[in-house]
Write a structure and sequence with these properties.
The chain is an alpha/beta fold. It contains 3 helices and 3 strands. The protein has helices at 11-22, 38-51, 70-82, and strands spanning 2-5, 27-30, 58-61. Strands 2-1-3 form a 3-stranded parallel sheet.
């Protein structure tokens, strides 16, 4: 399963998205929006991990040059999803 943080309109994220879809693998987008509640995004990710019985998780995201806060945002969602796992 792949999760992508940012926008997939162009570049490497678009390529990752399209490749995963072409291979029939689940791919989910978490668009960067500082207004989104990190805890609810973490709960959503956790439910996807459980539903798909994920053994390997591929995480991709926008470059920090494009979205400076993307690392903190991504890390916060991952930490919320995996808390107590």
């Amino acid at each position: 399963m792949s999760i992508l943080f940012g926008q997939v309109q162009f570049g490497g994220l678009r390529l990752l998205h399209d490749m995963a879809r072409a291979q029939g693998k689940p791919v989910f987008l978490f668009p960067y929006d500082p207004e989104y509640a990190v805890a609810s995004q973490g709960q959503l990710l956790r439910s996807l991990l459980i539903e798909y019985q994920v053994q390997t998780l591929h995480v991709g995201g926008a470059r920090s040059k494009v979205v400076p806060e993307i690392f903190k945002y991504t890390k916060a969602i991952l930490m919320a999803a995996l808390e107590g796992w």
